[in-house]
From TrEMBL:
Pfam families (alphabetical): APH
Lineage: Bacteria, Bacillati, Bacillota, Bacilli, Bacillales
Descriptive protein name: Phosphotransferase
InterPro entries, per database record: Aminoglycoside_PTrfase, CcrZ_PhaseVar_Mediator, Kinase-like_dom_sf
Residue span(s) of domain Aminoglycoside phosphotransferase: 14-213
Gene3D superfamilies for the chain: 3.90.1200.10
Transmembrane segments: none
Organism per entry: Cytobacillus spartinae
Amino acid sequence: MEHLLGQEWEIVPAGGATGEAFIAQHDQQRLFLKRNSSPFLAVLSAEGIVPKLVWTKRLENGDVISAQQWLSGRVLEPSEMNGLRVARLLQKIHQSEPLLGMLKRLGKSPLLPEELLKLLEEELDLEVRNLPVILTSMNFLKKELTNVYCEEMVVCHCDVNHNNWLMTDTNELYLIDWDGAMIADPAIDLGMLLYWYIPENAWQDWVRLYGIELTDQLTLRMKWYVITQTITSIQFYKTKNRLEEMEKAILHLKRIV
């Protein structure tokens, strides 16, 4: 990395699950570096959804390094997720034709409900599969499968956790960490956000901030996708032997179904 910027730059790991992200600093200048980030990053930057992309460079080994503007700020608090700016930024993402066009050019095809259900059934081990709440949930997913189709397929972030929303010191809002982006039903993002952060009696108001009405069909689709996401989390925590988090996810699933 050092030869890209010069010996005067200090480069340290930025943490994260992949180990492919770094922070570079020289005097008062800081950059966020990432190895082999998707070309999708350039469109996200141009749309103002992530901090500005400064440059990309290809190394001799074929790796591509991207450098983004480093912005001082903080992640949103859970209580801030009900704000107008979150709703409007998510609406902008879901309505973006450049984002959708780029994911299609990168070979992404829409994630359909039956594909998601098939993947879910394949990943569950026997112990998780036989939990009573999982049996109930899987029956619900199969029963409602034909009722959750959506004509509108958009770019979904697929992990709208409050830790992925960055508010800068200059009051700019960004949604970061796009590694899991898909073309899918917007209910994937909406359901996760509403179930995690918004009291149910405020859903209608929040959805209006986003720009639509809360219909029975949207409510069903959000429930369907949140159940699939929660089951996936239960299996993930079990596989990683994070049993306390697994139990919390099971309790969350019981409240949903």
